[in-house]
Amino acid sequence: MKRISGNADDIKDKKDRVKKDGYNRGQHCIYCLTYHMIFVTHYRKPVINEEMSSAMKEFSNHMAEQFRGKILSAETDRDHIHLLVSLPPNTNVSVFVRSIKTQLSREMRKRFPEQIKQYIYGDDTSFWSRSYFIATTGSVSLETLKQYIESQRSEEHQAKRGSKFQKKNLLE
């Protein structure tokens, strides 16, 4: 029996690799799933300062890695954070959102208690608004995708497909 050597990081790296084309490769899939997320502070209070902003971006990246994802871009304003996140296909996005909001809130309360107390009163008052914004992103427009899908039944596409099968049959 052959023994597999290497630590968990080596195995993780082999499971999820990003190639030059920007697509991620898992064990059984190739994917590019990115999401634009916005979380707003409770009552849109202007809690986030520069120091907190840096900590949020850093901690968000740490949280994404826990889900085998990656923060592609992050930016804050005084009352919200924007995240561009790449996640694997087996990630439940709503679980990710709930986790990152909860953990960001805990971490910021731990690191910046005085800053937060100036704007959000009481330990039981949530840091983030209950709502959030999320949208999927893509490298092409919806219209381009629609046209591509609709072209799959075109005579031109069928002819290309047929010539591939003919070449394959001749080689066999």
TrEMBL record:
GO biological process: DNA transposition
Pfam families membership: Y1_Tnp
Domain Transposase IS200-like, residue spans: 30-152
GO molecular-function terms, A-Z: DNA binding; transposase activity
InterPro entries reported in the protein's UniProt record: Transposase_17, Transposase_17_sf
Tree of life domain: Bacteria
Region feature (Disordered): 151-172
Gene3D superfamilies: Transposase IS200-like
Start-end of Basic residues biased regions: 160-172
Protein name as it appears in the record: IS200/IS605 family transposase
Organism per entry: Anthropogastromicrobium aceti
